[in-house]
Amino acid sequence: xxxxxxxxxxxxxxxxxxxxxxxxxxxxxxxxxxxxxxxxxxxxxxxxxxxxxxxxxxxxxxxxxxxxxxxxxxxxxxxxxxxxxxxxxxxxxxxxxxxxxxxxxxxxxxxxxxxxxxxxxxxxx
Length: 125
Fold this sequence. Notes:
three-stranded antiparallel sheet; five-stranded antiparallel sheet; single chain; elongated; mainly beta; 8 strands; 1 helix
């Protein structure tokens, strides 16, 4: 046991430090209406509903990495389709990553939605 202690202690010291993600309160999303060929950018607070055509987009959380790490923003998003005269249906629920929009994409015949970045609504002092 005495021989293992320096090895274990050395292994712990050699591990790289990992910073934690920073939770933001605003998400910036990109949207594409494939029929009208219209690209839009919209911003909304986490937990509130943004609309793109018949879609309701709700970001449940939005996180970004600290400045000393590789840039990345990710949001957990729920998207509902609300066509007129039809019941509301959940069409997407999951994480979207700004650096890899195709990794976890919305599969919808008319609209595409992707995360651009996370922001804080707090004013700079």
